[in-house]
């Protein structure tokens, strides 16, 4: 059991924070045990506060003693989904840490991560809540315990989740993730990652089923996974050895792999093309697909032009993330 036992409330409010992430390469293949490369996006974050409410206590030990609020422009459907997951997450947290207090809780999440864009909004929200609950109840959670709790929520939200989102939203630096294990990704070159929001929602569940149906129909699973592994490993080596041009080419090749599988859209393809025309070293869709965001790897001197061209091509928001070994952690 994590933390310490006891039932005394040592705090009135607990705070937890997590950040967004972008997958450099490895989407979908990572679910089948292949590696993926991910980058934290500290500019976009989720902050959760958990506090005691004056509502009636649930002495039955059930999960009805919880109120949940999300600030910002989020849809009612997302609030409903997260609210249901939060009750299960809270129950799992209590079971893990031995908390037996049934007082009414108020949980508030304030986030700047756009949902449905492949940036890890659901995982960051779950991690922020887990850390807020730990802070409120004065429990120490190990990194593996926090990961497992967030992963439980991700499996509910997305089906069988790979775990890369649950790991990356708490990472302090770029990482290589495979089969539940993560290692810091060595970056030996000075590049920037431009993240562009297409303004359209993606659907991870729909994309996963579309890819799975294609595998069954065409028998392409093994060739897809082999190609994905080669691109990920080639990009990781190129980044470590300071060859950004080669690393960028792998991003573009991975986009072509996903597009061939039917996971891109005309709008996403137009953003990828715009970034490449503006001098990006490589560009691709990021996340589950069928919408969401595009990422472009660029040298510092080309970043402004890439950003302008992405907006001209229809991006509604952009963020620039330094891709280096030691990233700032939220």
From TrEMBL:
* Pathway the protein contributes to: Isoprenoid biosynthesis; isopentenyl diphosphate biosynthesis via mevalonate pathway; isopentenyl diphosphate from (R)-mevalonate: step 1/3
The record ties this protein, via Pfam families, to: GHMP_kinases_C, GHMP_kinases_N
Mention one GO molecular function.
mevalonate kinase activity
Stored PROSITE patterns: GHMP_KINASES_ATP (PS00627)
**Enzyme Commission code(s) on record:** 2.7.1.36
The residues covered by the GHMP kinase N-terminal domain are 92-168
In this protein, which residues make up the domain named GHMP kinase C-terminal?
238-306
| Annotated compartments | Cytoplasm
| Entry keyword set | ATP-binding, Cytoplasm, Kinase, Lipid biosynthesis, Lipid metabolism, Magnesium, Nucleotide-binding, Plasmid, Transferase
Q: Which InterPro entries match?
A: GHMP_kinase_C_dom (IPR013750), GHMP_kinase_C_sf (IPR036554), GHMP_kinase_N_dom (IPR006204), GHMP_knse_ATP-bd_CS (IPR006203), Mev_gal_kin (IPR006205), Ribosomal_Su5_D2-typ_SF (IPR020568), Ribsml_uS5_D2-typ_fold_subgr (IPR014721)
Question: What family is reported?
Answer: Belongs to the GHMP kinase family. Mevalonate kinase subfamily.
Read off the NCBIfam families from this record. Answer: mevalon_kin
Q: This chain belongs to which protein, by name?
A: mevalonate kinase
Query: Which organism does this record belong to?
Result: Streptomyces camelliae
Upper classification of the source organism reads: Bacteria, Bacillati, Actinomycetota, Actinomycetes, Kitasatosporales
Q: Which gene encodes it?
A: mvk
């Amino acid at each position: 059991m994590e933390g310490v036992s006891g039932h005394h409330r040592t705090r009135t409010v607990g705070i937890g924070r997590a950040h967004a992430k972008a997958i450099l390469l490895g989407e979908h293949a990572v679910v089948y045990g292949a590696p993926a490369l991910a980058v934290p996006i500290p500019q976009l974050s989720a902050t959760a506060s958990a506090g005691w409410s004056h509502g009636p206590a649930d002495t039955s030990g059930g999960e009805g003693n919880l109120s949940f609020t999300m600030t910002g422009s989020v849809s009612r459907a997302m609030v409903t989904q997260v609210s249901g997951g939060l009750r299960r997450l809270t129950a799992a947290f209590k079971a893990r840490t031995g908390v037996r207090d049934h007082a009414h809780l108020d949980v508030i999440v304030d986030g700047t991560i756009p949902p449905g864009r492949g940036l890890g909004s659901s995982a960051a929200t779950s991690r922020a809540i887990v850390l807020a609950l730990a802070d409120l109840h004065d429990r120490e959670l190990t990194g593996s315990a926090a990961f497992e709790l967030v992963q439980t929520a991700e499996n509910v939200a997305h089906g069988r989740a790979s775990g890369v989102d649950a790991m990356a939203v708490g990472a302090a630096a770029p990482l290589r993730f495979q089969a539940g294990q993560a290692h810091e990704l060595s970056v030996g070159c000075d590049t920037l990652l431009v993240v562009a929001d297409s303004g359209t929602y993606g659907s991870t569940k729909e994309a996963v089923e579309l890819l799975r149906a294609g595998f069954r129909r065409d028998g392409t699973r093994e060739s897809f996974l082999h190609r994905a592994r080669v691109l990920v490993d080639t990009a990781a080596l190129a980044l470590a050895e300071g060859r950004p041009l080669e690393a960028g080419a792998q991003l573009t090749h991975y986009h072509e792999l996903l597009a061939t599988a039917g996971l891109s859209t005309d709008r996403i393809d137009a953003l990828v093309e715009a970034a490449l025309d503006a001098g990006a070293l490589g560009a691709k869709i990021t996340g589950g697909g069928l919408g969401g965001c595009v990422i472009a790897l660029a040298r510092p001197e080309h970043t402004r032009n890439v950003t302008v061209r992405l907006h001209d091509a229809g991006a509604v928001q952009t963020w620039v993330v330094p891709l280096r070994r030691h990233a700032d952690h939220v």
